[in-house]
Design goal:
CATH topology: TIM Barrel
Radius of gyration: 18 Å
CATH class: Alpha Beta
Number of domains: 1
Order of helices and strands: HEHEHEHEHHEHEEHHEEH
Shape: globular
Helix content: 25-40%
CATH superfamily: Aldolase class I
Strand content: 15-25%
CATH architecture: Alpha-Beta Barrel
Length: 308
């Protein structure tokens, strides 16, 4: 029996429909915040895969207000979904990395936009101090809130190779702070990072499953022009995953995730203008269809191997 019908995994879309009683769309925004891995506080120029847009390829321009960015992006979604409810998604940069009163203005500005029913905040596990946690608790008590943490890999050797700037224990500390505050937390993982094989990727999924997060996003490691990983790829130090490899790894990971963890993403969305590899990732529909077909072929569902 498949409890997720018609999919074989728990989509975030279905979770949000249950929460709000209707379709809810996330609108990516750019609040103009930096990152400690960019400004020299903890890193050496950013994570090896991160673009100049601070992983906000489809967020708006920081030169525009959040409301202006929102309206521009909403037009694109209205062509597909019509008028609906929205979650303001602070995607670009590290969105808890600023004085708390500045963060307060940003958060409430996003929430004041018409038809916005919640807030999603992308950040790092090492950018969560007591004042930020109090603000997040305040927001959480008033509206839907989720915080997204970029783990990428639970392997500390990999964390060093990608210049993440902190180890797995620090990630766990930040994650547990959010959990204790009652904040819904999404964990990002990336398949295909430098130096990792399939067992490393499954180990990350296993470690994430132990944390029982609200949501998981599974990303493809795609190579972006102008990054350290582009140099590694061109020097043959980094190999891009093949499509069939990626599909099989994702299905293995889904089988190990808790059945109640929402899946917010199953691949990556690279900017076609700056994407170097793998070029098959341009066809997102083929990737998603491939995952659906492989799960059906296995007669498998999310959580089938959870806890085993």
């Amino acid at each position: 029996m498949n409890p997720y019908y018609p999919k074989r995994f728990l989509t975030l879309d279905s979770v949000l429909k249950k929460e709000f009683g209707e379709k809810v769309v996330k609108i990516p925004l750019n609040a103009g915040l930096s990152c400690p891995n960019r400004d020299g506080r903890c890193g050496v120029g950013g994570c090896s895969f991160c673009s100049g847009k601070l992983s906000g390829e489809f967020a708006g321009s920081k030169e525009l207000s959040l409301a202006q960015q929102f309206e521009e992006t909403k037009k694109l979604y209205m062509n597909k979904w019509g008028e609906t409810k929205y979650i303001a998604y602070l995607q670009s940069g590290t969105n808890t990395y600023a004085p708390v009163e500045h963060l307060r203005r940003i958060y409430y500005s996003a929430l004041s936009i018409e038809n916005v029913v919640g807030l999603s905040i992308a950040t790092r596990a090492d950018c969560l101090d007591d004042d930020v946690l109090k603000l997040l608790e305040e927001i959480n008590s008033k509206t839907y809130l989720s915080v997204e943490l970029g783990l990428q890999s639970s392997n500390d050797k990999t964390a060093g190779l990608i210049n993440r700037g902190y180890g797995y224990e620090k990630f766990l500390s930040g994650y547990n702070m959010l959990r204790q505050a009652g904040v819904k937390t999404c964990i990002h993982i990336i398949n295909g990072l430098i130096g990792e094989d399939k067992e490393d990727m499954l180990k990350t999924a296993f470690d994430v499953a132990l944390l029982e997060p609200y949501e998981v996003k599974i990303h493809l490691m795609y190579v972006v022009a102008g990054t350290l990983d582009e140099k590694r790829y061109l020097n043959k130090e980094l190999k891009a995953l093949e499509l069939d490899e990626y599909i099989n790894i994702v299905c293995d990971q889904l089988e190990r995730l808790p059945p109640f963890t929402a899946v917010g993403r199953l691949t990556g969305d690279g900017d076609r203008k700056t994407l170097v590899a793998p070029l098959w990732s341009r066809n997102k529909r083929a990737v998603l269809n491939g995952i659906d077909k492989e799960l059906a072929k296995r007669n498998s569902i999310q959580g089938m191997l959870w806890g085993k």
